Amino acid sequence: MIDPVAMPEIVPPQNTGVPAQKQSVSSDFETFLRMLTAQIQNQNPLEPMEASDFAVQLATFSGVEQQVRTNDLLSQLAARQGLAEMAGWVGREALTRAPVHLDGTPQTLVAPRFDGADHAELVVSDMTGREVGRFAVDPRASEIPFDPPLSGSLPPGTYKISLEGFRAGNALGAEPVLSYARVSEARIEGGELLLMLEGGTKVERGEVVGLRH
């Protein structure tokens, strides 16, 4: 009676400085050969396995090994493309609805349109939502030069800015303005490309509606 095949003891690979992916493939191949050798040694001599069976097993393992290497290569290419894309964002000015950093530098704001408005006001709020300033602007302007006087009630910092439209004294609504800010850093977090704007505001790539140098 033939004893059951004794499974070889699998020793975890040691840290040799070789990348983990390559260590795993090499270890798996050695384990496969040891198991195949044990299978040959313990086969029933009256019903030996066909040589073609061994060839199929080896071919199957080779296919899996090749797929692992292909996946590793694709991951490396994707990482390089991600780095190239991130480098392309840094230094450019992104147009977003993110809060605006006011430091005394004149800003150009891209305003939403309110059809029929005869009066408009920029509303400046701090990051808690508290209104700290209100400025009358041309309701027909698509771009609004904005250089507010910075003082105790409106010190340098980051603010939420929206535009309110009015007609005959009646409010038509309020919408955030768009503004340009230079991208100081790009990084991938949780699989998403995030952009760090000057002033510390962080936005996702999908929030950017325009770019300029």
Tally of DSSP β-strands: 12
Q: What fraction strand?
A: 25-35%
- The residue-averaged pLDDT reads 80
Instruction: Kindly provide the radius of gyration, computed on alpha-carbon positions and rounded to a whole number of angstroms.
Output: 32 Å
CATH class of the largest domain, named Mainly Beta
Number of helices: 2
- Main sheet overview: 7 strands, antiparallel
What is the helix content? 25-40%
Description:
The protein has 213 residues and is an alpha+beta fold. The chain has three domains: 20-43 and 51-88; 97-179, Immunoglobulin-like, CATH 2.60.40; 181-212, no CATH class. Helix content is 29%, strand content 33%. It has two helices and twelve strands. The strands form two sheets. Strands 1, 3, 6, 9, 10, 11 and 12 form a seven-stranded antiparallel sheet that branches. A hairpin with a 5-residue loop joins strand 4 and strand 5 (131-137). Helix 1 (20-41) runs antiparallel to helix 2. The radius of gyration is 32 Å and the shape is rod-shaped. The protein starts with 19 loop residues before the first helix and ends with a strand. Mean pLDDT is 80; it is low at 1-13.
